[in-house]
């Protein structure tokens, strides 16, 4: 008998070992689903603030969990799987308890699934299922326990657990329901997060707050009974309201986020230099600035710390996605005509090369360079002005004179040293480049102005930490300071806060682009307003539209910081004290037209054919200072004339060169043909 019992025992042990080996092989043969679920791409500030997130491929919010409140973990394990740290994926005691309760009550009272089994279900998106589903979950759970650590399994649960709607994972839940990260949660918040995954749609607090509160309070009571919370803490948490709505996920700097995602499609996290509070403030400012204006207008702006090259805020459009405003277009990187915003660079280059000084006298009167005859924006001419006055008044003639003297290719080269990629119509630089005849972006202009603000040394602006680069020298420190000092003398636009900025505006041809850029001792900023499709905006001027926004940008930066003092090598002197070559500038190739008040031959005009029929030749004058002298083929035919209509004796048939000289020595000429029919 004893021998038989021993044989049975040996057989049982053999069968148990064989069964264990079969079970081991069964578990080892389990084909596991992918264990690295896709998570949302995120853009965060350096302090960890979430600024932008993208849904995963199926449209769900599934954020990497990050740091999670330890008390929430304790509550989760105490409620869902108190032997999580010790079982092998399946908890036999929990299964026996669940089966006993079901048998006693005639229905399922509690589940026997461990957290690992729940992870198995979530990985395969298999639903709760019946016995076949439960068996599959057990098999996958046992296999998971062999492949992963307990913390890795817990992290999968924290990533995949459903929290209502398209929310998956604890971090997506805390962002949507509480507007915060999960690193610090109240007992009430933690209890709701424990309760929601069991029935995420039925307990959604925005749809059924009573069901959500009831489920949460049930968790709180259980936690008090388990000693995870004190009775007082649980009672206090039960008095907290449940959230009434699902919060939107942050969508700051959406154009930049899309750019970064396109540039590095495999990256799940993009850390940026942006200041989240400033970014939010300036996005609101962009919307406010266009209120009451043409609904098709857009606005872009950018702010950087020119000392470090770090971009602090960037707004690509007034309203992201707004169809009427082409809100999908990132206008910080769209090439546009810069209008007059390149003039500070032209003057800085001229000062650096010794062609001029802020007090150098320069002509602002009609001038031609071959077939190119630029005019000022208002059609008026000021005569002789200082370079400082020309820059502040944004006159066109003086800046073209200086560009011609240096050569427009040197201006393009300076733009390239500043990090820009100028887009030239026809591929060749002409004198019109100085007045905006080139394509540049807002980002490039802000980078250029950052170089001027830094004493003439370029810097590569960057949105990512550690990506800034020290650039090449644009101009000398003295030239950069002198241009900044001139621009800082401009009065703020009407209605703008009083502050000392070095700033410049620009308006492109046809009123397509309105610009304003400026800097103080720390920050550089730029504003663009216009229509993204390039349609003209009648009456749009940089000084009226963009400049007030620029000053409000600096106001939201907390005011301005003092501009740099003059460097020792900067020459500060009036015109009379300048070296003789710097007192007055005149371009070598410029052909100046007559001054506005110079004498003009109103009649006969150039090329006229006249039939005098033996009568006198009547000359009619406009402008000029009497007395006048009239020459015919170089011979005086009238002198001392004070009237503006002078009758000359019949000079006979043929071609005649007429010249009128006024008291100032200024001349008007015309060549005419006379006939005697």
Tell me the strand percentage band: 15-25%
Total of helices: 20
Question: So, CATH architecture of the largest domain?
Answer: 3-Layer(aba) Sandwich
CATH class of the largest domain: Alpha Beta
Count of beta strands: 25
Strand ordering within the main sheet:
7-6-15-14-13
Percentage of helical residues?
25-40%
- Compute the gyration radius: what is it? 40 Å
Question: What structural class do you assign from the helix and strand content?
Answer: alpha+beta
CATH level-3 fold name of the largest domain:
Beta-lactamase
**Low confidence ranges:** none
| Cα separation of the termini | 159 Å
Tell me the major beta sheet. 5 strands, antiparallel
Q: CATH superfamily membership of the largest domain, which one?
A: DD-peptidase/beta-lactamase superfamily
The total number of structural domains is 4
- Report the principal-axis shape: elongated
Q: Taking all residues together, what is the mean pLDDT?
A: 90
Oligomeric state, counting identical vs distinct chains = single chain
List keywords for this structure.
677 residues, alpha+beta, Beta-lactamase, five-stranded antiparallel beta sheet, five-stranded mixed beta sheet, 35% helix, elongated, peptidoglycan glycosyltransferase activity, Glyco_trans_51, protease
Brief rundown of the structure:
The protein has 677 residues and is α+β, with helices and mostly antiparallel strands. It has four domains: 1-30; 63-238, Biosynthetic peptidoglycan transglycosylase-like (Penicillin binding protein transpeptidase fold, Orthogonal Bundle); 339-585, DD-peptidase/beta-lactamase superfamily (Beta-lactamase, 3-Layer(aba) Sandwich), CATH 3.40.710.10; 594-675, Immunoglobulins (Immunoglobulin-like, Sandwich), CATH 2.60.40. A five-stranded antiparallel β-sheet has the order 7-6-15-14-13, sandwiched between helices. The protein has a five-stranded mixed β-sheet with strand order 19-25-24-21-22, with no helix packed on it.
């Amino acid at each position: 008998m004893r021998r038989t019992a021993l044989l049975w025992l040996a057989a049982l042990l053999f069968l148990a070992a064989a069964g264990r080996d079969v079970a081991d092989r069964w578990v080892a043969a389990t084909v596991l689903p992918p264990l690295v679920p896709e998570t949302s791409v995120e853009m965060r500030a350096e302090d960890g603030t979430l600024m932008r997130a993208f849904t995963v491929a199926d449209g769900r919010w599934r954020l990497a969990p990050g740091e999670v409140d330890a008390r929430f973990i304790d509550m989760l394990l105490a409620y869902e799987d108190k032997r999580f740290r010790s079982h092998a994926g399946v908890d036999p005691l929990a299964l026996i308890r669940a089966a006993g309760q079901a048998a006693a009550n005639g229905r399922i009272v509690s589940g026997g699934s461990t957290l690992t089994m729940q992870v198995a279900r979530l990985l395969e998106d298999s639903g709760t299922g019946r016995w076949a589903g439960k068996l599959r979950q057990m098999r996958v759970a046992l296999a998971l326990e062999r492949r992963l650590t307990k913390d890795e399994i817990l992290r999968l649960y924290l990533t995949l657990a459903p929290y209502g709607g398209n929310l998956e994972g604890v971090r997506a839940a805390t962002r949507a329901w509480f507007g915060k990260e999960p690193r610090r949660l109240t007992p009430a918040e933690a209890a709701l997060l424990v309760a929601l995954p069991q029935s995420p749609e039925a307990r959604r607090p925005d749809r059924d707050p009573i069901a959500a509160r009831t489920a949460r309070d049930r968790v709180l009571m259980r936690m008090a009974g388990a000693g995870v919370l004190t009775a007082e803490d649980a009672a206090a948490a039960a008095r907290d309201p449940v959230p009434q709505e699902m919060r939107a996920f942050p969508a700051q700097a959406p154009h930049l986020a899309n750019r970064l995602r396109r540039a590095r499609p495999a990256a799940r996290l993009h850390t940026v230099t942006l200041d989240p509070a400033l970014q939010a403030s300036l996005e609101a400012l962009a919307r406010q600035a266009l209120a009451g204006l043409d609904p098709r207008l857009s606005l872009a702006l950018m702010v950087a710390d020119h000392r470090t090259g770090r971009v602090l805020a960037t707004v690509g459009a007034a309203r992201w996605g707004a169809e009427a405003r082409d809100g999908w277009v990132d206008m910080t990187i769209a090439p546009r005509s810069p209008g007059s915003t390149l003039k500070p660079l032209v003057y800085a280059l001229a000062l650096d090369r010794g062609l001029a000084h802020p007090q150098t006298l320069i002509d602002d009167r009609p001038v031609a360079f071959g077939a190119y005859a630029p005019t000022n924006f208002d059609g008026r001419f000021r005569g002789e002005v200082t370079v400082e006055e020309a820059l502040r008044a944004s006159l066109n003639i003086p800046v073209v004179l200086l560009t011609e003297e240096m050569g427009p290719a040197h201006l393009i080269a300076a733009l390239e040293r500043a990090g820009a990629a100028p887009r030239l119509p026809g591929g060749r630089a002409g004198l019109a480049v100085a007045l905006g005849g080139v394509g540049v972006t807002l980002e490039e202009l802000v980078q250029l102005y950052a170089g001027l603000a830094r004493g003439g040394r370029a810097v590569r602006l960057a949105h990512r930490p550690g990506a800034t680069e020290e650039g090449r020298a644009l101009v000398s420190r003295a030239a950069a300071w002198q241009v900044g000092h001139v621009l800082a003398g401009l009065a703020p636009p009407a209605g703008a806060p009083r502050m000392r900025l070095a700033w410049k505006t620009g308006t492109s041809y046809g009123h397509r682009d309105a610009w304003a850029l400026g800097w103080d001792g720390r920050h550089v900023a730029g504003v663009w307003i216009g229509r993204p499709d390039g349609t003209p905006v009648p009456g749009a001027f940089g000084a009226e539209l963009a400049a007030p926004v620029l000053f409000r940008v600096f106001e939201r930066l907390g005011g301005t910081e003092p501009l740099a003092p003059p460097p020792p090598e900067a020459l500060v002197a009036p015109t009379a004290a300048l070296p003789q070559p710097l007192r007055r500038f005149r371009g070598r190739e410029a052909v100046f037209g007559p001054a506005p008040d110079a004498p003009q031959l109103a009649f006969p005009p150039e090329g006229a054919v006249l039939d005098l029929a033996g009568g006198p030749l009547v000359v009619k004058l406009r402008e000029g200072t009497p007395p006048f002298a009239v020459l015919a083929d170089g011979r005086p035919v009238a002198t001392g004339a004070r009237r503006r209509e002078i009758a000359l004796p019949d000079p006979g048939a043929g071609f005649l060169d007429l010249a009128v000289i006024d008291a100032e020595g200024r001349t008007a000429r015309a060549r005419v043909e006379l006939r005697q029919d």
